[in-house]
Write a structure and sequence with these properties.
Number of strands of chain B: 0
Structural class of chain B: mainly alpha
Largest sheet of chain A: none
CATH architecture of the largest domain in chain B: Orthogonal Bundle
Radius of gyration of chain B: 25 Å
CATH class of the largest domain in chain B: Mainly Alpha
Distance between the termini of chain B: 46 Å
Number of helices of chain A: 14
CATH architecture of the largest domain in chain A: Orthogonal Bundle
CATH superfamily of the largest domain in chain A: MetI-like
Oligomer: heterodimer
Strand content of chain A: under 5%
Helix content of chain B: over 70%
Strand content of chain B: under 5%
Number of domains of chain B: 2
Structural class of chain A: mainly alpha
Number of helices of chain B: 12
Helix content of chain A: over 70%
Number of strands of chain A: 0
Chain lengths: 299, 313
């Protein structure tokens, strides 16, 4: 399961959570404190399950191979960057990164741009049968998987193991389209009326007025779609056989196949690829949320 | 012929073709690479298509289905994989739902650091299966790994992902929940934020305790989030198989239906073009999985709308 979920995250909302402690007598207060301690105990236990694996990864990335075999779990003897250099060189990380950036950027740009052009007339009901077009996007979530015929299509187009063929797979996003439609509905129709009265044409209206106005929704869909492509593992496994076309996910798994027992180098490779994602996530988390809540508030 | 409706406000005449011209690339792509192939899966399931271009494709009727469900040792494996898919889905759905709810309840109070906790629990979602899988492969290192160490303190030992099929399977369930409980939690949190504080105050004045507040205010008013999570968890876990690929590969006694489709259609660990891959058969398997998901999702949906009527009318 991916993060492609249109539900607004609670994180950005500024609503204060219900307070645990209105005016309470002394015994009520100790009970509340005990409850708080209990909450923290559970949360910290869970945190250990999330921080533990990460810590293991970081510690491993700083150990030499013999050191790792001798003592996999403990603290490393010294913190050198030898494994990172080795991983960077042997795992072709630079090339995979370039590929991933290329696939993600091109496919996301095309997908979002064409989706806006579909979403606008549907949201406004400007086209005959707009309702049915929207329905076709909604039921997509309940149709059988397209895996096999998609492969036959790419194969017969002669696009197997090509960048074009691979990018083609990521050019649509039904959930993203639904997010866009809902957001456009929140923009007052009077805007269309006054623009039309002033003699503004459809093209100019869509490109110059609608697109800037729905920027929060565009940002949301862009981020969700891009994350989905970046993390995709199965499709590159199926469609790309040349190593120089691999994105980072596939590259990592292939590196694991070759260096499976060399955990320090492998851990370093994982860490190199994970860190930018985590940093980006810390910024985007808020961004995704503000985009979604802005759409919800305006309606 | 008129393409636009009466509501259309912009210039008419030949220029009213503008909306459809702009819509066509996106909609065309959608039909070509999503809807078309999706529907064609059913057609391919009646053929002997392979992974090679240019080989004639023959019509087989129900042959693939017959073989998948009823013929020989392979069909017994398939049925076993079907049961395993249900077991996987049951454990993932119930545990992920429960943990997600507990975490959301805890984080919806005025605890210091709750944003940090929330970020930590949501983090794996952003990393994707390849990194999730590798992190846990390392964490579950048999012989000296952290989990192995902790197990040894209490006298347990385990081969983890390399152990007996049942054991490896159970660990994949653990990682699957670890990776996705953040989504469930965030959806619950979003639902909780829509519950007005005044209701809690009123209930407190009536003398309700913590459990009663949850049972009589939070739970019923959380119905939309509960339903969303319930359905998403069921459907998601029935279709999930990618962590199996990263964590244990295609091992006998561990496959779920999703992995089976991939392995029959594209090989067990990596894709390539080969006549050995029976894509018609794989299409039949994927239709079988689809029917399973559909039946269970419809049942779950009926249950959920029944609940909705009970609480929200």
């Amino acid at each position: 399961m991916t993060v492609l979920n249109p539900t607004p995250d609670a994180a950005g909302a500024s609503v204060e959570p219900p307070s645990d402690e209105p005016q309470m007598d002394r015994s009520g207060r100790t009970a509340a404190r005990r409850r708080k301690l209990f909450s923290y105990a559970i949360l910290l236990a869970f945190t250990a399950l999330y921080v533990g694996p990460m810590l293991m990864l970081v510690l491993t990335a700083f150990k030499s191979l013999p050191e790792f075999f001798k003592n996999p779990t403990g603290w490393p003897e010294s913190f050198g960057f030898g494994n990172f250099v080795e991983a960077w060189e042997k795992a072709n990380i630079a090339r995979y990164l370039v590929n991933s950036v290329l696939y993600t950027a091109v496919a996301t740009a095309i997908c979002v741009f064409t989706s806006v052009l579909v979403a606008f007339p549907i949201a406004r009901g400007y086209l005959k049968g707009a309702k049915y077009i929207l329905l076709l996007y909604v039921v997509a979530l309940f149709l059988p998987p397209a895996l096999i015929p998609q492969f036959q299509l790419i194969l017969n187009l002669g696009l197997f193991n090509t960048r074009t063929g691979f990018i083609l797979l990521f050019l649509v996003n039904p959930i993203g389209l639904i997010i866009l439609v809902n957001y456009i509905k929140s923009i007052p129709r009077e805007l269309d009326e006054s623009a039309a009265v002033d003699g503004c044409g459809y093209y100019r209206f869509v490109f110059k007025i609608v697109m800037p106005l729905i920027r929060p929704a565009i940002a949301t869909v862009t981020v969700l779609h891009a994350i989905g492509i970046w993390n995709e593992l199965v499709l590159p496994t199926i469609y790309l056989t040349s190593e120089n076309l691999y994105p980072v996910t596939r590259g990592l798994i292939v590196f694991e196949g070759l260096y499976g027992s060399n955990w320090p180098a492998l851990a370093a490779a994982v860490l190199i690829l994970m860190t930018p994602m985590l940093v980006l996530f810390l910024f985007l988390q808020r961004y995704i949320i503000s985009g979604l809540t802005a759409g919800a508030v305006k309606g | 012929m008129k393409i636009v409706t009466r509501d259309y406000l912009f210039a008419r005449g030949w220029r009213s073709a503008a909306p459809i011209l702009l819509l066509l690339p996106g909609f065309g792509l959608y039909l070509l690479i999503a809807v078309g192939p999706s529907l064609a899966t059913a057609v391919y399931s009646f053929t002997d298509a392979t992974g090679i271009r240019g080989i004639a494709i023959n019509w087989l009727g129900f042959e693939n289905y017959d073989e998948f469900l009823f013929r020989g040792a392979a069909s017994r494996d398939n049925i076993a994989a079907l049961w395993r898919t249900l077991v996987f889905s049951f454990f993932v759905t119930t545990i992920q739902f429960g943990l997600g709810l507990v975490l959301a309840v805890l984080l919806n109070s005025r605890l210091r650091g709750r944003t940090i906790f929330r970020t930590i629990f949501f983090m794996p979602v952003i990393l994707g299966v390849a990194i999730q899988g590798l992190i846990w492969k390392l964490f579950l290192l048999p012989g000296g790994g952290p989990v192995a160490e902790i197990f040894s303190w209490i006298g347990w030992s385990s081969e983890f992902l390399g152990g007996q099929p049942r054991q490896a399977f159970a660990w994949v369930i653990v990682v699957q929940i670890w990776a996705n409980v953040g989504i469930t939690m965030v959806i619950f949190l979003a639902g909780m934020q829509t519950i007005p504080e005044s209701l809690y105050e009123a209930a407190r004045i009536d003398g309700a305790n913590g459990w009663q507040l949850f049972r009589n205010v939070t739970w019923p008013l959380l119905t939309p989030a509960v339903n969303t999570n319930f359905l998403l968890n069921i459907v998601g876990s029935l279709q999930a198989w990618q962590l199996f690929l990263v964590l244990i590969g295609y091992r006998p006694g561990t496959q779920v239906l999703g992995y089976l489709v991939f392995a029959e259609g594209f090989g067990q660990t990596s894709g390539s073009v080969s006549s050995a891959f029976r894509q018609g058969y794989a299409a039949a398997a994927s239709i079988a999985l689809f029917m399973l998901v559909l039946v269970i999702a419809l049942a779950a949906n009926a249950f959920v709308s029944h609940r909705e009527k009970k609480y929200l009318s």
